[in-house]
Every structure is written in C-alpha cells, then in structure tokens.
Write a structure and sequence with these properties.
Helix content: 40-55%
Largest sheet: 6 strands, parallel
Number of strands: 14
Oligomer: single chain
Low-confidence stretches: 541-558, 561-565
Mean pLDDT: 87
Radius of gyration: 29 Å
Structural class: alpha/beta
Number of helices: 21
Strand content: 5-15%
C-alpha cells in the first residue's frame, strides 16, 4: 500500500522529534511505499539536512511553519466575503463560553469543523490564506468575537497586542491549509495518512480525509495538547492569549480525534488525555515505542557481571531527574551498607544542566568526603560522575552492566526509555512513581514516591541485601521488555493497524480511460504492489470534477464574415 507519513519537526530531519522511531518503522515495512510530508520548525533544522532514507521512500515534500513570508494572494469580493464568514465562525467558536450542555458543545464542534474546512476549500481555490489571516480585517473580526455578548471575561479583556499575537499564532497554525499537498498527485493518492503526532502534523491528514476520503491514523507518544498548555504558561503570554490559543488547540485536537480512524497512544497517560478530549475508546490502540534490544543482549544474558554493591543512575543531567534526592538517599544507604557505591552516568542538558551538575558534584563532595583505607592511602569518593563514551563507560550497555541495581529518581518523566534499557539488561530497578513508570515496570521492580529520599534508600538497601530477589526481578524485567518494547513488536503492531484501516476504509478513486469514460476494475490488487505496475492507459479524475470537465477545452466556432451583422 501507499502510505503518507506526516511529521512536524521530526523525520526525515536529522535530530528531529521521533526521527529514530519513524526511521525504524519505514525500514521495517519495506513491502510498502512511503511518501514523507514534513513540516519544519526552524531554519536551523532545515540546514541540518535529512537522515539517510531507505529506497521504499518514494518522495519527500517539506514546508516551513516558521517563515514570515506572505503568499501574495489578493482576494476578490466574493472570496473576501467567504473568508469573513468562515474566519468569523472559527473565532466565534474560540470565544464561545465554556461549559454548556453536551448538545451545544457538539454544535460548536461542528461549527468549528465547518469553518476549518471552509477555509481549506477557499485556500485551495484561491492559492493561500496567509495574507488574509494576517489582514486588518481578520484582527477586527477577532476583536468583535472577543467583545461579543456572552464571551468569556478573559477574552473580553484582550488588548490590541493580545489580538495581534493570537492572529499571528492562528496564521502559523493554519498554514498547512495553504499547502498544495491535497491533490491526486499528493496526499489524495495515498491509501492511508499516518500522522506521527497531533496538532500541526495531523492537520494535513484531516484535509486529505476531507478532500479525498483518505483514512487517518494518529500516533501520539507525547500529547501535543498538553505540550501547548505547558508552553502557554503564566510567564509566556497574557491571560487572553493563553485562553484563546488553548481554545483553538483544544478544538483542533477534538476534531483530529473525532475524524481519525484509529488513535495509537504510546502509553496509558496519553490514552487518558485522548479519552478526556473526546476520543472514542473503541478506536484507541496503545502501541508502545519500540527499542533496539540487540545492543543489550550480551549484558542481559550475563547478569552476574554486575558489582553487587553498586547502584547506577543513567540519563540526562537536569533538575527534573532529581539527583539531589538520589544523593541524600544514597547517604542513608551508606549508613546501612558501607561498601555501597553510586555511579551517576550522563551528560548535562544545556546550560541549566551544567549548573545542576555542578551543584550535584558539590553536594556529593559535602555528603561523602574522600575516604581512604589507611593513613597512607589516597582517598576515594563513593559517588562518581561519568559520561557515556569515556574509557570506563564506552556504551550505554556498559553503564547498566556496572551496577546490580539501576535507580530512577525523576520527579517528571514521560515514557522512561532508560528504564526499558535497564530491563533489557536484566537489571533490578528502583524507580519513582512518575509518568509511565508503573506501566512500564509492571511489577518487575520496586516503585517509591517521588521526592522521598528515605523510601528510595530503603528500596535500594532491600535489593542490595537480597541477590536472589535481584536476579528474579531482573529476569522478569528482561522478559517483559522483550515482549512489549522491542522494535519488532512496534512494527508488527503498526502493520496490523495499517491493514485493518485499509480493509475497513478503502480509498475509492474514479479512473478514466482515454475517452474520458469511467474505467471499471482500474485498480486491481496487484496495483498496490510497490513499484511501477503496467496497466491500461488511464488517468485519475480529481475529486469534485465531473467527467465532462476532464477533457480538452472546446474551441469556439469562428464566425464567418457577415454573420455577425
């Protein structure tokens, strides 16, 4: 089948979001054709270039969401009237009071959808929306909606700078409506659109579904709506701006969830967000991220290589990892187990991470003065700070192999990939109850409350003193990881979902022969085999265009001399 992979700030750009996952998915499904439709986030991302693409990627189309260039499209009077109606309906929904009855909410959802698709149709006919969304009339329409009776108090308090900020954000968010991706030579030719995130990445899929009835699959390993809410903090924007943009992203997310054939969250936390935003529970399939297990096979099959007195922490050094609590917990561990050691393996994340690492080093020096075995021996600190790639820890597998117990002390965590790596290595783990930790561990490790050094220390001591328990937990953790979190499991799950969607929602296209007549049986099953298929000469009729309009233009009959008199 022909699959359209929709990304925003990710694949195929080097270092993009979910780039590794997308690359593994595309390479693992070599029997299908992929077209990549990528929205870029910055000039820097585009300058970095693309990662190497496998041969099953037929083409890549990109568009920037960060530029400020206008499209130069001038509307006529009728187009301006249509834009005013659709844009007015859109912003009226954003300024509608929240909390009415369910029937009223459904009516607002339908009104938002009709306005969105109306703008998309206008952009397709006129060549773009950028200039119209930036126009003074668009800002005045937004202002009237904010001042209308019944609008929330926060919206009524919007000032001119707030209105300009909201209008600029809406223009960027709706820029996919102006792209030329939706014809039968683009997304309309796909059998399935797979959006690798919600928000802007899923918007082209919505339009492909609207224009060409191409089914949409949406995968969310991180909830885009939650990210928007967090980005619009109290220090980021005025209350009116936050309220209006939150309403827009909430409505867009609800429309994506309503139109997608299947939603695939990466964990139970994302699934709960989707259900809270109105997603139909029967159309949700949890698909865990896939990770390469081969790198950890040797360590996982040799659990006795670990130092029985060593705790290991592996990750990026930043405040959310709460290494301060870990160091205080290790001070309690040392009181019970004087031979215990702690190895902190990871690089700092940015300037904040550098400062945090310095603070952790100072605390470790204060809590654990260098110790020596005798009067003439050199002192040694039981806490070491290392980075992967050094002589002591050349690979992540070597980091996990260094200790008998792997510790995760985070106060904020999404899907703990490092914890899965530890499970691949067959290590017993002690983790804080944050994010998807409990879902990942599933009873194969110890879990304690976050910001509780005493509980963290007691769990570590319990495992250090019981090697048989460590071995049982490590073996169970490795078996669970190999069952749920491998690349093979991830690829097989998506392949099954692809087949389910295409079987249930096939795309029906009208194909014309040379005479302009509909051609029956023009797309037999073998036409879906990757590569060029040799068949009769035919052309696909664009949706919405009747057969009589697909031929050559009819020339006017010339008027003979004297006939016009």
């Amino acid at each position: 089948m022909r699959l359209a992979l929709l990304t925003h700030g990710g694949y195929p750009y080097v270092g993009g979001d979910a780039g590794l996952w997308c690359d593994r998915l595309v390479r693992g499904l070599a029997q299908h054709e992929f077209d990549i439709y990528a929205l870029s986030r910055s000039r820097h991302q585009e300058d970095q270039g693309w990662m190497p693409l496998p041969p099953q990627v037929g083409r890549v189309r990109t568009a920037p969401l960060w530029t400020a260039e206008t499209d130069g499209v001038a509307y006529g009077r009728r187009a301006r009237r249509r834009f005013a109606e659709c844009h007015g309906d859109l912003v009226d929904v954003l300024c509608a009071a929240t909390g009415p009855a369910a029937t009223a909410q459904d009516a607002l959802a339908d009104r938002f959808a009709n306005a969105l698709y109306g703008l998309a149709e206008l952009a397709r006919e006129q060549g773009g929306l950028v200039g119209a969304l930036r126009s003074d009339s668009a800002v005045r329409t937004l202002e009237r909606a904010c001042r209308a009776p019944g609008a929330p108090r926060t919206a009524r308090e919007a000032r001119v700078p707030d209105l300009l900020a909201v209008a600029a954000h809406l223009e960027r968010a709706l820029r996919p409506l102006s792209l030329d991706w939706y014809g039968d030579d683009g997304l309309g030719a796909a059998d399935l659109c797979h959006a690798t995130a919600g928000g802007p990445a899923a918007l082209p899929g919505l339009l492909a579904r609207h224009f060409s009835e191409v089914p949409l699959l949406v995968t969310e390993y991180g909830v885009q709506l939650r990210s928007h809410y967090l980005a619009l903090g109290a220090d980021a924007a005025a209350p009116a701006v936050r309220a209006l943009l939150a309403a827009f992203h909430g409505r867009l997310t609800a429309e994506v969830y309503r139109r997608a054939e299947i939603l695939t969250p990466g964990n139970a936390h994302a699934r709960r967000w989707q259900e809270h935003c109105g997603a139909d529970r029967s159309r949700i399939r949890t698909v865990y991220p896939g990770m390469e297990a081969d790198h950890f096979t040797e360590i996982g099959e040799s659990p006795d290589r670990a130092d029985p007195d060593t705790l290991v922490w592996v990750g990026r050094v930043e405040p959310a990892k709460d290494l301060i609590s870990l160091l205080h917990a290790f001070a309690e561990v040392r009181k019970e187990e004087p031979k215990a050691r702690l190895r902190i393996v990871g690089a700092p994340l940015g300037a904040e991470g550098e400062a945090y690492l310095g603070h952790c080093r100072a605390l470790a020096a204060q809590l654990f003065p260098d110790e020596a075995d005798g009067a003439h021996a050199v002192g040694d600190n039981p806490v070491s700070f290392e980075e992967i790639g050094g002589p002591e820890v050349p690979t992540p597998a070597d980091a996990y192999a260094a200790g008998a117990v792997v510790v995760l002390s985070s106060v904020v965590e999404g899907f703990p990939l490092g914890l899965i790596e530890a499970m691949f290595c067959g290590r017993a783990t002690v983790s804080t109850d944050v994010g998807a930790v409990v879902e990942v561990i599933g009873g194969t490790g110890l879990v304690v409350p976050p910001r509780n050094p005493r509980a963290l220390a007691e769990a570590c001591v319990a495992l250090l003193r019981d090697p048989e328990r460590r071995e049982r937990l490590g073996a169970a953790a490795r078996a669970r990881a190999l069952e749920l979190f491998t690349v093979e499991q991830n690829i097989a799950a998506f392949h099954g979902i692809y087949l389910e969607i295409v079987a249930r929602c096939p795309v029906r296209r009208v194909v014309l022969d040379e005479a302009g007549e509909p051609l029956p049986f023009a797309t037999p099953p073998e036409s879906h085999v990757p590569g060029r298929w040799t068949g009769p000469t035919a052309r696909v009729l664009p949706r919405g265009i009747p057969g009589w309009a697909a031929g050559q233009p009819v020339r006017a009959t010339p008027i003979a001399a004297g006939e016009g008199a």
